[in-house]
């Protein structure tokens, strides 16, 4: 009976039609496979190409002590070898993704059978997929294109063909290595090494078992299980991975319980341009290296690509010092910003329809674009007043707000910014570098791009020129005000005018930052001699030939000041700060090397150098920078100079220790906006604490003992004898009757003779009446 029924079915018209349809579908499938195989749906990689896989690799930026600072990439990938993969990481992957990995080729027939019956026929989504690690590797390597309704079938065929070729070429450990080097993790991160460094701040070798489980868990859905954004989801998924490891006996039930109880503790390090450490310096490095690579070819004769060729850029940066500097900056600037806003109160210009805000609105890109389209002022302001969802920078973290473009302008214009650099004075090697308070929101670099008036930090250059022109450190100058040609009368901040007969030695005048004497010293030395001295110390920016430069009217860069001040520790020779030592290809072959720029001639004598260091030490011990001792309790050997500019718009401090020169600047990006008072705006309050906090952190870390416990070279007996005089004295009657009157006439005469533009001082009357 059964045989009869089978024969009947086989002879039936329905079966014949079924057979024809099946054969037609099978033939079409074979044709589809063949079309994919010969490349009609996109070229297929040959075995030769697969043997020489070249994946885009991130270029690494490395500190001088070998730590990863940042990366440049299209895909964030750092390849590693099989030996770098801990066994528990491999176990987690196999338990979760492909437990029969060592038993099958590219395709796991058992998994396909399960998928067909359970997932497709029974609609059981928990039964899992049929993709093997090899098939996933094929997808990682070549991605997927949009083929419309046939997409999923074509993708699977392509990946099966590529997977089969991979299995023919590579053994299982090699396939695992390729997989881990190419698989995408959360936050646009490719490869296990990049993921380990980004999420846990360690190499793949150093991963703990629970950390491996977290990263493997994200492979199911890298965004959904992102441990940074969704920690609870990530923990649940991690525990699934751990459970799978126990299921397949990679770990014991006791170990499973222990691991599941652990919290996820991230040590997140963002390496894209807006995140992580030394963001401003990394942008400078990117620009410099990109320019160099335009002139260098690889072995194939093609130019290198900073984003995909896996280069190694070695820098001078000290990783730990940079971390300390950034922590010090955040600590000080957040507190200073509060002081700044509280001092202005409700009368703050950013809260009102002030000229500051009107100018800022007109400088905005949206305003300029709409104005260029011929739209009326009223309509432009109406458009810029529409509120929308946006994210704001605050010192308490990013804040989501409903605000308009004008609201945003008012919010950002009030922020104080910073420029800070620490260099090794004998070479110019940059050890720490901060170009601003937050690269994501303030991308203007205040170390190399910004030029700001330097205030009293220019005075040491004036006094250096004076010493070089035979004006001794014990030369006395009266503190009283003098009116120069054009009606300009520089004055002092403080009570120096209480005794009009008081005189200060040059040593005391610089340590106390006395404006009236700084100008007198410059006039006695000669304006051009001071400018020549600045040039000899490496300053290239324009310096106008006016007596006001004694009070710091030149606008200079933070980087320039660091190079100039280095001469006080580098045998009187300036340096040019640099931050790249060499660039290598991915195999460690050198592409370019960099050496410190040297100056052929010292900028001043050894005697002058010793005198200036002594004077600037006195500035710290009893002068304008004394709060380094009193407030911050620093006992290091330190010399330095504070600076404050007109209307408290810029605060400066230069800190000199025996093996480090640190320059700090603080102010608002908008030149119209200054500190509301000198108490908080003077360099001793606005800029000096950046250096002080950094030194405190370095003092607490034994790794920096070679810097923090260093001593200045001893001052020679001859120089000590030259400086052996009282800081102040009072003119007697005869001196007042003859000398001071004659001195005043000579000063006026020199002023008339040396000014190239008559009436200039009338224009700058009152500049820098407050300087500290």
3D structure, described in words:
The chain is of the alpha+beta class and 772 residues long. The protein is 45% helix and 11% strand. It has 32 helices and 20 strands. The strands form six sheets. It has a five-stranded mixed β-sheet, with helices on one face. Strands 10-9-19-18-17 form a five-stranded antiparallel β-sheet, sandwiched between helices. Strands 3-5-4 form a three-stranded mixed β-sheet, covered by helices on one side. The longest helix is centred in the middle third of the chain and has 26 residues, at 319-344. It starts with a helix and ends in a 9-residue tail after the last helix. Mean pLDDT is 86; it is low at 115-128 and 737-772.
Total beta strand runs: 20
Main β-sheet description: 5 strands, mixed
- Count of DSSP H/I helices: 32
Low-confidence stretches: 115-128, 737-772
Beta percentage is 5-15%
What is the general shape?
elongated
Strand order of the largest sheet: 2-1-6-15-16
Helix content: 40-55%
Structural class: alpha+beta
Mean pLDDT: 86
Radius of gyration: 35 Å
Distance between the terminal alpha carbons, to the nearest Å?
A: 113 Å
């Amino acid at each position: 009976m059964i045989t009869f029924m089978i024969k009947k079915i086989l002879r039936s018209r329905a079966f014949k039609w079924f057979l024809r349809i099946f054969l037609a579908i099978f033939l079409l499938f074979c044709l589809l496979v063949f079309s994919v195989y010969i490349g009609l749906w996109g070229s297929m990689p040959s075995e030769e190409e697969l043997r020489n896989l070249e994946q885009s690799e991130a270029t690494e930026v490395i500190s001088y002590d070998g730590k990863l600072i940042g990366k440049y990439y299209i895909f964030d990938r750092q390849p590693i070898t099989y030996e770098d993969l801990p066994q528990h990481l491999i176990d987690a992957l196999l338990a979760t993704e492909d437990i029969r990995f060592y038993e099958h080729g590219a395709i796991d027939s058992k998994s396909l059978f399960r998928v067909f019956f359970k997932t497709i026929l029974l609609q059981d989504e928990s039964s899992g997929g049929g993709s093997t690690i090899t098939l996933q590797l094929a997808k990682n390597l070549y991605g997927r294109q949009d083929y419309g309704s046939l997409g999923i079938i074509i993708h699977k065929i392509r990946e099966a063909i590529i997977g089969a070729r991979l299995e023919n070429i590579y053994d299982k450990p090699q396939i695992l290595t390729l997989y881990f080097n190419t698989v995408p993790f959360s936050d646009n991160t490719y490869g296990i090494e990049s993921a380990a460094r980004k999420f846990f701040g360690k190499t793949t070798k150093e991963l703990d078992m629970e950390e491996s489980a977290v990263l493997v868990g994200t492979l199911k859905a890298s965004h959904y299980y992102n441990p940074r954004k969704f920690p609870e989801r990530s923990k649940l998924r991690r525990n699934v991975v751990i459970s799978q490891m126990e299921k397949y006996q990679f770990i014991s039930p006791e170990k499973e319980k222990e691991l599941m109880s652990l919290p996820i503790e991230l040590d997140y390090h963002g390496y894209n341009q807006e995140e992580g450490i030394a963001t401003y310096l990394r942008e400078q490095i990117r620009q410099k290296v990109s320019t160099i690579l335009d002139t260098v070819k690889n072995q194939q004769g093609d130019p290198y690509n900073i984003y995909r060729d896996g280069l190694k850029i070695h820098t001078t940066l000290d990783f730990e010092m940079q971390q300390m500097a950034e922590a010090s900056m955040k600590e000080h600037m957040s507190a200073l910003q509060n002081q700044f806003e509280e001092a202005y109160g409700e009368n703050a210009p950013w809260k009102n329809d002030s000229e500051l805000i009107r100018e800022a609105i007109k400088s905005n890109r949206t305003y300029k674009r709409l104005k260029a389209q011929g739209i009326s002022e009223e309509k432009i302001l109406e458009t810029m007043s529409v509120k929308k969802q946006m994210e704001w920078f605050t010192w308490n973290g990013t804040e989501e707000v409903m605000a308009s473009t004008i609201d945003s302008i008012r919010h950002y214009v009030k922020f104080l910014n910073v420029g800070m650099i620490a260099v090794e004075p004998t070479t110019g090697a940059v050890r720490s570098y901060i170009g601003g308070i937050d690269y994501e929101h303030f991308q203007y670099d205040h170390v190399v791009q910004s030029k700001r008036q330097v205030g009293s930090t220019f005075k040491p250059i004036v006094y250096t020129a004076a010493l070089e022109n035979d004006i001794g450190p014990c030369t006395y100058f009266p503190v009283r005000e003098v009116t120069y040609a054009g009606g300009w009368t520089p004055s002092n901040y403080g009570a120096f005018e209480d005794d009009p007969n008081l005189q200060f030695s040059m040593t005391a005048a610089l340590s106390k930052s006395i404006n009236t004497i700084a100008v007198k010293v410059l006039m006695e030395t000669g304006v051009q001699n001071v400018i020549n001295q600045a040039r000899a110390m490496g300053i290239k920016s324009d310096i106008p030939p006016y007596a006001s430069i004694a009070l710091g009217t030149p606008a200079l860069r933070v980087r320039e000041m660091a190079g100039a001040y280095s001469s006080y520790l580098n045998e009187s020779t300036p340096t040019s700060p640099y931050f790249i030592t060499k660039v290598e290809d991915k195999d460690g072959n050198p592409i370019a090397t960099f050496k410190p720029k040297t100056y052929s001639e010292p900028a001043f004598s050894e005697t002058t150098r010793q005198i200036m260091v002594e004077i600037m030490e006195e500035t710290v011990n009893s002068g304008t920078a004394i709060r380094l001792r009193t407030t911050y309790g620093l006992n290091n050997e330190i010399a330095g100079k504070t600076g404050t500019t007109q209307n408290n718009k810029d605060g400066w401090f230069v800190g000199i220790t025996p093996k480090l020169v640190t320059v700090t600047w603080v102010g608002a990006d908008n030149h119209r906006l200054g500190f509301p008072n000198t108490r908080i705006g003077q360099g001793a309050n606005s800029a000096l604490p950046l250096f002080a906090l950094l030194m405190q952190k370095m003092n607490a870390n034994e790794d920096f003992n070679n810097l923090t416990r260093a001593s200045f070279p001893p001052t020679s007996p001859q120089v000590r004898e030259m400086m052996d005089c009282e800081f102040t004295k009072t003119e007697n009657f005869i001196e007042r009757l003859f000398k001071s009157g004659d001195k005043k006439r000579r000063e006026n005469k020199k002023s008339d003779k040396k000014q190239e533009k008559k009436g200039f001082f009338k224009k700058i009357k009152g500049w820098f009446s407050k300087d500290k």
